[in-house]
Specification:
heterodimer, A: alpha+beta, Cathepsin B, Chain A, two-stranded antiparallel ribbon, 46% helix, B: Non-ribosomal Peptide Synthetase Peptidyl Carrier Protein, Chain A, 4 helices, 0% strand
């Protein structure tokens, strides 16, 4: 038996790359015919940088609930995790019962290592999410929607592989998203009461961004980048430290792309609020971040003072651009 | 700098080989994932060119990222 959702058309926005869970939530809201469904995504800028005084270790993080719906609606998503010794077959049976009763898909956590349609099949581990849409007992196959770049999969996989993907420890293998056990996690969403306007939703994201990314807290967002600049100028030297910096920034900067995508979607929905200046500036900012990522990767391969200095000078450009972005966001927020 | 195109083609051939991509190296090939130029590949590729030409391309990374073909890359290096 398979849900109607499985055969419905699906839309994808490239800014959701690295946000597979939020992409799944958006797909469910879309299918439930929620107006402005993508705009319920928490797309706020979020970057916490903790620089350990004694070791110069740099730890990156994100604010709570950064990867779900916007705070007023995040409680409508329930996510469940199990102990490592839980029975995946029993959880699977419960999951199928849940989708058959509600008629809606659920979000299921998986390890891409066991997904035959991805390039990572039996090669690399990575935590990922997809939508469970049904089960064909006779063929022992599971209906999956994994509407995500680059595979855009809507099809079946053997139940045996699905259970392995759900119950995997996803050991660290050097891949950026490996190293986190899946624990058969899954999530369901209540779609009642989602009737906000595009402007209200944008305002929530901007307020969050101002609070999280542009606060005066030295460990958050723009202020943290200023600390990072000092740290990179003086302390960080080892190739391994630059590799870690690259990997952490690679994930962190995805939120800039997500917010840019969010503004572009808002632009489609709202005719009387102009966000084109914000999109242009955010785009220019992302281009400099891409250069920083390349420089960080290069600095992790060769010991070059020139490359490290260039990295710091690009960080200066980012700080200048994001100071301007802060002003634009404050003005936009006031106008909403 | 007269041999820039030759060096770019040689590095292009190397990355195609390392990525197991069965394509003939050409300056008109797309400068992207289909040619093995992903986020890691592009840095390896640029460092390979820097070493062979004994130059530094850090100031041109932003322009290099926007290249559509290997020919555009040659033009940027020759600037």
């Amino acid at each position: 038996m398979v849900l109607d959702f499985y055969n419905q058309p699906k839309k994808y926005y490239e800014g959701f790359e690295s946000f597979c869970y939020q992409n799944c939530l958006k797909l469910i809201l879309d299918a439930a015919k929620i107006s402005y469904a993508p705009l319920y995504t928490n797309a706020s800028l979020s970057m916490i940088i903790d620089i350990k005084d004694k070791t110069d270790e740099i730890v990156f993080g994100q604010n709570e609930n950064a990867r779900t719906l916007l705070p007023p609606y995040s409680d409508q998503v329930k996510r469940y995790y199990y102990d490592s010794d839980a029975d995946p077959k029993e959880i699977f049976t419960q999951n199928i019962r849940t989708i058959n009763l509600s008629g809606n898909p659920i979000v299921v956590g998986v390890d891409v290592f066991y997904l035959p349609y991805t390039p990572y099949y039996h090669k690399n581990h990575a935590i990922h999410t997809q939508l469970l849409c049904g089960f064909e007992a006779a063929q022992e196959c599971v209906y999956i929607t994994d509407w995500y770049e680059p595979w855009f999969f809507n099809g079946t996989i053997p139940k045996s592989e699905f259970l392995r993907a759900r119950n995997s420890d996803s050991p660290y293998d050097g891949s950026i998203y490996s190293g986190t056990p899946i624990l058969n996690n899954w999530a369901e969403i209540q779609t009642e009461g989602l009737n906000a306007s595009p402007e209200e939703l944008l305002k929530l994201n901007l307020e969050l961004t101002l609070k999280q990314y542009f606060s005066s807290d030295a460990s958050m967002g723009l202020e943290a980048l200023k600390t990072l600049r000092v740290c990179l100028s003086s302390n960080v030297r080892s190739l391994a430290a630059f590799k870690k910096l690259h990997d952490d920034l690679y994930i962190a900067i995805k939120r800039h792309r997500l917010l840019k995508q969010y503004l572009e979607i808002f632009h489609e929905y709202s005719s009387h609020i102009d966000v084109s200046s914000e999109i242009v500036l955010l785009n220019a900012d992302i281009e400099v971040w891409d250069t920083i990522l390349m420089l960080a990767l290069k600095a992790s391969m060769i010991d070059s003072a020139l490359t490290r200095n260039k990295l710091v000078s690009n960080l200066n450009i980012i700080i200048e651009k994001e100071t301007n972005l802060h002003e634009l966001f404050k003005q936009l927020c006031k106008s909403l | 700098m007269g041999n820039v195109a030759e060096v770019v083609l040689a590095c292009h051939a190397e990355i195609l080989k390392n990525s197991n991509i069965d394509v003939q190296p050409s300056l008109d090939n797309p400068f992207g994932r289909e040619s093995g130029i992903d986020s890691l590949g592009i840095v390896n590729f640029i460092m390979d060119i820097e070493e062979k030409l004994n130059i530094d391309l850090d100031d041109k990374l932003s322009d290099i990222r926007k290249c559509k073909t290997f020919r555009e890359l040659v033009e940027i290096i020759e600037e």
